Amino acid sequence: MPDRWPDLAVLDLLTAVGTTGSLGAAARQVGMAQPNASRALRGLERDLGLTLLHRTPRGSSLTPHGLLVAEWSASALEPARRLTLACEALRTSSRGQVSVAASRTVAEYLVPSWLAALREERPDVQVLLRVENSSEVCTEVLSGETEVGFIESEHVPRGLRHTVVDRDELVVVVAPGHPWARRRRPLTPVELAATPLVTRERGSGTRETLEARLGRLEPVPLTPAPPALELGSNDSVRIAVASGAGAAVMSELAVRESLSTGTLVRVPLAELVLERRLRAVWTGSGDLRGTGRDLVQVARNAGRLRSRRPTPDGAARR
């Protein structure tokens, strides 16, 4: 047993440094005063015996050791977030209950607002949420462990009913110092497929969507090169890309803030449409009922509202 467990709040701060590119921005993101944030990270470095940040007058960035620890931290923080959600559900005395599984992208960037809207309509409701990749979500719904799932993958397994609740776009992103950040012509599918990318694990909807779209190109289907890095969460991929590990194809939802702050740069892509449908899935011979139906309707309404808002580049979503 370790003498002292790392503080989850400090690990969250460390991952935020990789996401935002600076200690000040990371402190604001997690709601911590910057002097306290600086002391907390120095304490973490002292406890671990590692230098995690490269500090300069222009800001702080993750060292190679910092990148690894941030990646591992993202994996540790995810079950902690699930624990928090589960405890919140336990505090709710409910007359309605629904078990929900959601892919990581959907769970991180859409489900919180859906649950808040559902709670306004149904303050008595209890939602038990599991966060998995899209393949695992489908498996849980098919097995009966979960009543309704939300996925981002192209393929819906046989035996599942489904409906579209929202749409999302995948974008190519790199760090500002990457050669692609300065290119003047759009990236071609052949160039993208030939480049080892920082990717999510197999079974993730993002990875499946990219592989499927490249594989359907005409006249010559393309197969992506083996990954440069294979990581288990959006946070890990984003941190790795921002730290210079390579390019990635990610959900626009996952990188919107990083694009607006300049931590990541979007690379234009030619001849390849990467918009995808986000779906609710369930089993049975008919439509969902009760709380599950209400949650799917909330998600669908939220999707309609998002479709009317402009994207970060000023264009309307289709």
UniProtKB/TrEMBL annotation:
Belongs to the LysR transcriptional regulatory family. PROSITE patterns: HTH_LYSR (PS50931). The keyword Zinc-finger does not apply. One of its GO terms (molecular function) is transcription cis-regulatory region binding. Keywords: DNA-binding, Transcription, Transcription regulation. It comes from the Bacteria. It comes from Knoellia locipacati. This is Transcriptional regulator. The lineage of its organism: Bacteria, Bacillati, Actinomycetota, Actinomycetes, Micrococcales. Residues 6-63 form the HTH lysR-type domain.
